[in-house]
Amino acid sequence: MSLHGRLLNLGVTTYQEAHDVQLQLHAARAANRIEDVLVLTEHFPIYTLGRTTRPEHVGAGWEGKSINGIALCISDRGGSVTYHGPGQIVGYPILALRQYCAGPKAYIHLLEEVLIRSLAILGIKSARRPGTPGVWVKDHKIGAVGVRISRGVTRHGFALNVVNTLEPFSAVLPCGLVGCTVTSVAMETDRQVTLTGGREAVVRGFQEVFDLSLEEAFSMTDMGVYGTGTALQSCNPS
Questions:
Q1: pTM assigned to the model
Q2: In a designed cystine with 65, which of 7, 51, 202, 236 is the match (CB 3.0 to 4.6 A)?
């Protein structure tokens, strides 16, 4: 592989914690102090609202600021509302984009390819749906993509449903799509599925697509990154 980067596994985090990590890594990458990084995590239950979210995508939760006890959090990524929870692999690539493609549309295509290849490794055939970022298994969405690019460096990324509960998606319009239903790796295969296996597939798919060899980092300080991050602007839609 022609390029070298780092892999940072955070385990289960709050959305705020992962947001802080992204900002610190983004600043360091933009200043060329670190290599490209793929951050992998799971989140405690949270609904996140991207830049295209509308009240009708969320329903009563828009005013109540939570749905069935799960908080809503505004995010600066692209896309509409989605749910994150344990058992779902969330990837936050922090990349100097010019090394890989010409711009945001091409980058989203690459992230979709990561998910398609990862699912193929797990024995699942998936595909894109024109005009709708993300990856689908037949008529069910299994992977979401939403990004932000500033100073030429990426943040946010993708989420792949592996062994997570899918019920929370039914309380919103996932990605703002009327009639959208979701699925998971566990739902689409007869084989025993583990989160570890899912992560391994994602890492392999990511390395293949970006031609990037990832060396594991064991902490932020292991990469020479220090700081406290910055709080999210808001964790409700008001």
A1: 0.94
A2: 236
